[in-house]
Amino acid sequence: MSGRIGVVACETFKQEIEHLLQGQDGDVAYKEYLEFGLHEYPEELKRAVVDKVNSLKGRVDAVFLGYGICQSLKGITSRMEVPTVMLDADDCIGALITSDEYERERKKCAGTWYATPFFCEKGEAWFEKKLIHDLGEEQARTLEEQGYDNMWFLRQLFNGYSRALFIDTKVGEREYFESLSRKFADKLNLRHESRDGTLEVLEEGLRKTRALANGC
User: Fold this and answer.
1) pTM
2) Which of 31, 78, 162, 179 is deepest in the core (most CB within 10 A)?
């Protein structure tokens, strides 16, 4: 009997992980995608990840933690009560193009917005939601009445960025996601480029988790 695995991952990876598990999820006893944005609150992120993984003790034999280091998760597996494998990457972008390629792209253009399929679909709507959350509805409404609309804040947030880089992870129609990325770039007057991503880092993480669950 094969070991049972759990998947606890950031929702930024949902499409890619679901693609990898398609038809191969017979050993997945638990799966949950946590809301993107927790990385902005390091202690909250650590607490959420540790609590979620530890709640699976006795229910799974190993857990695939679909997170990069994200500035705060280095060494986090030492706090897990279930054998856990996490991604060998700084963050979700590093995991989807490899750490070496991420470093190369950062050297090529430090002011880059990385548009994975997840971020392409979120678009400006996510930033509007974040703006309201950070300012509070009343303050956001007051500023809008004063002429500071969402696009004004979006342009301030992206001040210093010069490039949008679409990353095709092969989980859907490239034309659809790339058009969303280009539309976002055009709104902010960013140079638009495209490149292929990879699922190798996620795939290797799942492979190691399955091996751990089976005592290999």
Assistant:
1) 0.88
2) 31
Alpha carbon distance 12, 87 (integer Å): 13
C-alpha 92/C-alpha 98 separation (Å) is: 10
The residue ranges of every structural domain in the chain are 5-95+199-213, 99-196
The mean predicted confidence, pLDDT, of the chain is: 90
CATH topology of domain 5-95+199-213: Rossmann fold (3.40.50)
Question: Cβ(63)–Cβ(80) under 8 Å?
Answer: yes
Q: Which residue has the higher pLDDT, 114 or 70?
A: 114
**Alpha helices for 136-173 (secondary structure H):** 137-145, 150-157
- Over residues 194-213, the mean pLDDT reads 97
For residue 71, the Cα-to-chain-centroid distance in whole angstroms is 13
Tell me the average pLDDT across 52-57: 98
Q: What is the pLDDT of residue 129?
A: 66
| Among candidate residues 134, 179, 124, 178, the one with its CA nearest the CA of residue 155 | 124
d(CA 132, CA 140): 6
CA torsion through residues 131, 133, 135, 140, sign: positive
